[in-house]
Amino acid sequence: MAAPDYEKVSLLGEQKASMQNVVKVLIAEDEPNALAGLAELISGWGYRTETARDGMEAWEKTQAWDPAIVVTDLKMPRMDGMGLLAKLAEGAEGLSANMAVVVLTAMGSIQLAVDAMKLGAYDFLQKPVDPTRLKTILANATKQRETAIELEVARRRLRESGVLGALVGSSRAMREIFTLIEQVAPSNVPVLITGESGTGKELVARTLHDLSPRKARPFVAVNCAAIPETLIESEVFGHEKGAFTGAVERRAGCFELAAGGTLLLDEIGEMPSGTQAKLLRVLEERKFRRLGARAEMDTDVRVLAAMNRDPQRAVKEGHLRPDLYYRLNVFNIAMPPLREHLDDLPPMVETMVNEMNQKHGRKVSGVAPSMLDRLMAYTWPGNARELRNTIERAVILCPDGAPLDAGHLPSGFGKDQSAMLQAADGSSITVRVGATVDEAERLLILRTLEATGQNKTRAAEILGVSLKTLHNKLKEYVRDQQEVRS
Fold first, then answer.
1. Which residues does 475 contact at the CB level (< 8 Å), separation at least 6?
2. What is 6-149's CATH topology?
3. Is 164 exposed, middle or buried (CB count within 10 Å of its CB: 0-12, 13-18, 19+)?
4. What is the pLDDT of residue 419?
5. Is the backbone peptide bond immediately before 128 cis, with ω within 30 degrees of 0?
6. What is this structure's pTM?
7. Would you say domain 423-485 falls under CATH 3.40.980.10?
8. Which of 23-27, 49-53, 480-484 has the lowest mean pLDDT?
């Protein structure tokens, strides 16, 4: 059997560009010319290669050399490819848990390749080998291995210090969140992230991106509540020149900007229903169309969504399409409010102080017990975002070399805000028996606005809704009053 002319597909410039790649690849093939050709080809891509002429030799070299990838023929003397794969699958001592096995199979042996996949093979290739396909498989296997290693490092860091990406916490609630993130990060499935305003939903999304194979590609976040309804479709999908009044040039949307990476759609319940329908089609068919365009475009983007309201209630109230909810809710991560895991506050404060020292060029030396006691006694209606703002202000005020103390907190900290929460959380609101949910909601919103001095932004944070939602509710109340008067 003549070896394929692999030399023609190995370019000198490509070889030089990838010489720093030290991923080890073991090639097991009993036909000498094919073995030499594969070794030369793969080495030309910058991989470090070793060869074996049968399965038994390959097995011995995996133990001594610990390759990241094994490329093996299925039919070999002494031990065939299936036997080698079975031995590797046993997880013998000294073998890397992140080893990928690529099997080579002749025409008519597809069933053997399928059986190999069931045993744990990463992928298979038919002979004669397609160099382009082989190169892609090796690159993907390398990327998956790197992601697995980084995830294991993150897990070790989590066990040691209670940190995962930008998230901090050792409480049971946060450890459950970390476990969910670890489980879903390597996949491409959509994730719906829920929780009150300021709980760190975008941090979760960024951590999912950073722990995924897409980490080298863009992470794009768009707040659906901050974009006018007339512009959101253009923002998400882009538009062609002349698609509407004011469209003086072609513009790429978020799906194009996030190509190959991750797109976070924050406050997805504020997206207009028509745009939600188009988004659902993109999720199902992996295609989208710019406004004003005739042709569709393929897209490879992982979509994450976030909202600060109960998604099932949002569906019931018509803010979120049921079909889109079911498509996005493949995996749900519900962030707990800070008041439910205050045990995590000390390490969160320590992390924030270090970040703010670096950001502002300060040298604050920790937090005094008196301040920590004040922080722990507060209910944090604005959650981690409010805590971060409080710490940043304190770091700016604190002299270098000194610790933060209670004197660096805002005047009246924990008093006025606490009274506001008491007025906003229902403890001092009397609702008549038989009142509807809408009536109770209206009373809650109006009393919270009263407690915040008509500060709508602050009221929205306390209520755990977007500013846009609060404005819509207030418009409804005005219309109701007008209808009653008429």
1. none
2. Rossmann fold (3.40.50)
3. buried
4. 38
5. yes
6. 0.59
7. no
8. 480-484
